[in-house]
Amino acid sequence: MRLLSLDPVRYGLVYAMKRRPALSHSVRLIGTFILAAGVTACSQFSPQQLEQTRLDLAEQTTQIVQQTVKQYPDTEAELKSAAGFFAGQFSGANMLVAGGGTGLGELHDNRDGSITYIDIRRLDLGPGVSASRSSGLIVFKDGKLLDEFRKGRAMPSLSAESSIGDSGTKRIASRQGEDFSLYYFAEQGASAVLTTRVVKASVNEALTDTGVSDIAIPNATLDDSGDHIEKPPRQWDRPLPLMAQRVVDLGYDLPLPFGVRLNYAGIDQDMYLGSLDVGFNGGSKEAFEFVNFSDASAESDSVQLIFDAWLLPFMNVSLLVGDLKGDAPMLISLDGNGMLDQLGEDCSRPGPNPLCRLLEDQSFLLDIEPDFSGTTYGVGVMFAGGWNDFFVTIPLNFSYADMDTTKTDGIAYTATPRVGYSFKLGKWGTVSPFVGGNYLKAELDVTGSVDVPGVSLTIDYEIQQKNVDRWNALVGANWDISKRWAVSAEYNGFTGSRDAFITSVNYRF
């Protein structure tokens, strides 16, 4: 006789039973578990491998249900009236003071016909030695309990377990609860363990088609495979985006709703003078038009942390905060006579005039090289969608730079339409090259003062710079390593005077 334990995610109950499956079925299920473990550890397997795993799990579920109905005939009616059921197989081992186990099975929701593939993870802490494999069926009479099981929660329990393999005895145990029924079959193994056990269920995202996209863009793919097998409906089980289920029912896959991205951008561009206010020796500044402005540029490096969410199926909103460093050198030539004319000073009049003495027939060259650093804040919205691996994205962003000093201040508006195509690389993920354009409207306000050598004159200035070229072309690529991790890089600068390199690492959840 053998006594084995099963700790359901919700109840941590202990039951016993035994069954030795046919050798061929065992070998196939072992292969299923090896692939399932790989599916959990590595996110990408070929569609053929995933489909074969689903077929094996469907066969496993059928055998568990048939076995249960054979022993408990009332189970057939119970399954038809239930909110749903879970059928799965479990295996585990414990050596000396620590161990664990895994399980994989199907969760059938009778309310909408959906099938969710569930991973079971178990951690054992306690003395003992064990190695076992078992299967079980949980019938959920209550839909709320089924939903809690699907979401998964870490449930601790204390389990006393003592068992030895018994090939000549078939043991089956059941437990009837108010909102569930449990049927458990011990298949093989031997153990003697006293453990504190934590069991958690989670959705196997690789096997379960809930509508989560392989790329970070909403997309739909025309099914031209000729396979007209009816597939179970897909159930979007995440809080965002709004109206997601309607779009998923239309055949679209959606990215995971939330993301955090680390972004680097290096930009070098020519600037021009938007306005210039000049004052002397601490006096008030006035707009000055007679100025030559040359060799103006701006170089900046920024690192940004961006948080985003898909608010609607095809609309993403984001917030960013970052660190900005750079410089904006410029060479300004001022004509003294022009300044006197603009100030309304008449140097032909008799009597002393200090401004005439300082400015008449003089020219001044201001070599300004302000460095700036500060914190950037921004908001953004992106409209995106794809069809048959083609995609379009249109991100719009506004950012403001709060500089560490009051000498510089900057704002920027960007729009970056892109079009591209996604190439699926199997276990290596998906690579999506793209081309497009980048619109950038940048304004940089610089305030400072310069002492004129040889005379007692300080020129105070307030300059507004703007980027020379608003539009240029870009090329880049996204690499979606998995449904959660992605990296991207792009270069723009093929037209105009702006060069920029942007790269990022993105995590979705």
Describe the protein.
InterPro entries: Autotransporte_beta_dom_sf (IPR036709), OMP/PagP_B-barrel (IPR011250). By secondary structure, this protein is α+β, with helices and mostly antiparallel strands. The protein has two domains: 23-203, no CATH class; 253-508, Beta Barrel (Lipocalin). Helix content is 16%, strand content 53%. The chain has helices at 23-41, 47-71, 75-81, 143-151, 244-249, 336-343, 354-359, and strands at 84-109, 114-140, 155-163, 172-176, 180-203, 219-220, 252-253, 258-280, 286-287, 291-294, 297-312, 315-327, 330-335, 363-368, 371-387, 390-403, 408-415, 418-421, 423-424, 430-452, 457-467, 471-480, 485-492, 499-508. The protein has a 16-stranded mixed β-sheet that branches. Strands 1, 2, 3, 4 and 5 form a five-stranded antiparallel β-sheet that branches. It has a three-stranded antiparallel β-sheet with strand order 10-13-14. Helix 1 packs across helix 2 (47-71). Mean pLDDT is 80; it is low at 1-38 and 156-171.
SSE inventory with pairings:
Blueprint: H1 23-41, H2 47-71, H3 75-81, E1 84-109, E2 114-140, H4 143-151, E3 155-163, E4 172-176, E5 180-203, E6 219-220, H5 244-249, E7 252-253, E8 258-280, E9 286-287, E10 291-294, E11 297-312, E12 315-327, E13 330-335, H6 336-343, H7 354-359, E14 363-368, E15 371-387, E16 390-403, E17 408-415, E18 418-421, E19 423-424, E20 430-452, E21 457-467, E22 471-480, E23 485-492, E24 499-508
Parallel strand pairs: 6-15
Antiparallel strand pairs: 1-2, 2-5, 3-5, 4-5, 6-7, 8-9, 8-11, 8-21, 8-24, 10-13, 11-12, 12-15, 13-14, 15-16, 16-17, 16-18, 17-20, 18-20, 19-20, 20-21, 20-22, 22-23, 23-24
